[in-house]
């Protein structure tokens, strides 16, 4: 049996960090009365004129199949609406309603304050170091394969 590859602990550390972040933030988002995908859509649409579903899918962590269902549920709750696109009749614009804008104005700052408290003990140098390291890791996966 071969010894573990040197990169496996790095992969494990990335996964554990992401899982801890996801569990912690998801619990806070649920305390706000939203699911994480609902929050993702509300936060992405906030302070915009709306966007097509394809752009919304690119800007969120939600797959296309899941996106439609989540948007449908947000429409049913009166927080999001679909509107005709000005120049392309094949697509619609997804945007917040007035009620959705009010929800965004409440939950987004609340969640940002929650995150700020989690990162409160980190220095600017810590953030710079983490961002540089994460960017380097990202680049490994963006390199084209031959």
Structural notes for this entry:
This protein has helices spanning about 10-30, 35-45, 55-60, 65-75, 100-120, 125-140; strands at about 50, 80-85, 90-95. The protein is mostly helical. The protein has a single domain (about 10-115), classed as Orthogonal Bundle (Arc Repressor Mutant, subunit A), CATH 1.10.10. The chain has a three-stranded antiparallel beta sheet with strand order 1-3-2. Strand 2 (about 80-85) and strand 3 form a beta hairpin. About 15% of the residues are buried.
Which labels suit this protein?
single chain, 146 residues, mainly alpha, Arc Repressor Mutant, subunit A, globular
Strand order of the largest sheet: 1-3-2
Find the count of extended strands (DSSP E, 2+ residues): 3
Q: What is the helix tally?
A: 6
Gyration radius, in Å: 19 Å
CATH architecture: Orthogonal Bundle
Q: Structural class of the helices, strands and pairings?
A: mainly alpha
Mean pLDDT over the residues: 91
Q: How many individual domains? A: 1
> What is the CATH topology?
Arc Repressor Mutant, subunit A
Shape: globular
CATH superfamily: Winged helix-like DNA-binding domain superfamily/Winged helix DNA-binding domain
Query: How much of the sequence is in beta strands?
Result: 5-15%
Major sheet? 3 strands, antiparallel
Distance between the termini: 29 Å
In oligomeric terms, what are we looking at? single chain
Helix content: 55-70%
Kindly provide the name of the CATH class. Mainly Alpha
Note poorly predicted spans. Answer: none
Order of helices and strands: HHEHHEEHH
């Amino acid at each position: 049996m071969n010894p573990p590859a040197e990169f496996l602990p790095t992969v494990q550390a990335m996964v554990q960090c992401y899982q801890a972040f996801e569990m912690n933030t998801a619990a806070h988002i649920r305390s706000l009365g939203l699911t994480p995908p609902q929050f993702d859509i509300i936060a992405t649409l906030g302070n915009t004129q709306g966007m097509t579903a394809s752009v919304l899918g690119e800007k969120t962590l939600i797959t296309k199949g899941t996106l439609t269902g989540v948007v449908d549920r947000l429409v049913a709750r009166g927080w999001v609406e679909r509107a005709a696109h000005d120049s392309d009749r094949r697509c619609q614009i997804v945007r917040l309603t007035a009620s959705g804008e009010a929800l965004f104005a409440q939950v987004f700052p609340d969640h940002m304050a929650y995150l700020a408290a989690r990162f409160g003990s980190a220095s600017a140098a810590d953030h710079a170091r983490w961002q540089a390291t994460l960017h380097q890791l990202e680049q490994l996966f963006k390199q084209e394969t031959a």
